[in-house]
Design brief:
The chain is about 35% helix and about 25% strand. It is an alpha/beta fold. It has a single domain, classed as Alpha/Beta hydrolase fold, catalytic domain (Rossmann fold, 3-Layer(aba) Sandwich), CATH 3.40.50. The protein has a nine-stranded mixed sheet, with helices on both faces. Strand 6, helix 4 and strand 7 form a beta-alpha-beta unit. The protein starts with a strand and ends with a helix. It binds glutathione. The site of glutathione (GSH) has 13 residues, from helix 1.
Length: about 280
């Protein structure tokens, strides 16, 4: 693992690393924010999964999470959103919603994607093992994300009971098998059999009996992707039917951008802190 940048931030450190990922079969970069408390004790860790087109940098540079994370004593880890590099497949037209920057946090089964696009295994197993081996973090984990990554966070938490103490999302692509972004990605990565899609669709996981955990969603009401791509009503209905507690917060006037995320990131960090024992 190679350290490639260090920035002091609110008494702690923002750091970027490069490493070879055996799940993704390529070099990957991730970022970690370590609060000052990590100098003397193991701190809980929040994994943040970004949305389409992002890298490890968008959240760290735009969300403004470090101020409160430093006060809480919370580490934050940001992976990239897809495998990258020479030999890694991309969409034929380099579309922003498939291939590079658009891994959707699934394990692809279809060529040419299946040789690298295994973001599910990377985020669930390989990255946390690496983080817990090399950094002063405890086994108290939470997971959050935005849009594609908001869905990834909820989906991964529901599929791995006990691994995360809480999960949250900004503007998640709630029901990917029913919206254009999700259908395009799942058809490419998982194939045309829609039964295979259900294993990675949050609404389908809830409908088929996934065990709940504390979940929070923040959604801007002026988000241009709301009606066509995000479908939060399907998530809310599935959670209600299943008796799963979902704290849903609708915000008039806010859009899909990091201006929205920065406005409510403190609320989500406080939500996680209350479940991480901070
Ligand atoms: N490029 C697409 C959407 C891309 C987009 O909104 N990406 C979100 C995640 S879904 C993002 O976080 N973009 C990077 C940023 O704002 O820093 C478009 O403009 O229609």
């Amino acid at each position: 693992m190679e350290n490639i940048s260090n920035n002091r931030s609110f008494g702690g450190w923002h750091k970027q690393y490069r490493h070879y990922s055996s799940s993704l079969n390529c070099e990957m970069r991730f970022a970690i924010y370590l609060p000052e408390q990590a100098n003397s004790q193991k701190v809980p860790v929040l994994y943040w999964l970004s949305g389409l087109t992002c890298t490890d940098e968008n959240f760290m540079q735009k969300a403004g999470a470090q101020r409160l994370a430093s006060q809480l004593g919370l580490a934050i880890v940001c992976p990239d959103t897809s495998p990258r590099g020479e030999g890694v497949a991309d969409a034929d037209d380099a579309a922003y919603d498939l291939g590079l920057g658009a891994g959707f946090y699934v394990n692809a089964t279809q060529a040419p994607w299946s040789s690298h696009y295994r973001m599910y295994d990377y985020v669930v197993d390989e990255l946390p093992a690496l983080i817990e081996q090399h950094f002063p973090v405890s086994d108290k984990r939470a997971i959050a994300g935005h849009s594609m990554g908001g869905h990834g966070a909820l989906m991964i938490a529901l599929k791995n009971p006990g691994r995360y103490l809480s999960a949250s999302a900004f503007a998640p692509i709630s029901h990917p098998s029913q919206c254009p972004w999700g259908q395009k990605a799942f058809a490419a990565y998982l194939g045309s059999d829609r039964e295979a899609w259900k294993a990675y669709d949050t609404v389908e996981l809830i409908k088929s009996g996934a065990k709940g955990l504390p979940m929070r969603v923040d959604q801007g009401e002026s988000d241009l992707f709301l009606a066509e791509q995000l479908l939060p009503q399907a998530l809310r209905a599935a959670a209600t039917d299943a008796g799963i507690a979902l704290s849903f917060h609708s915000h008039p006037g806010y859009d899909h951008s990091y201006y929205f995320i920065a406005s409510f990131i403190d609320e989500q960090l406080k939500f996680h802190a209350s479940h991480l024992g901070l």
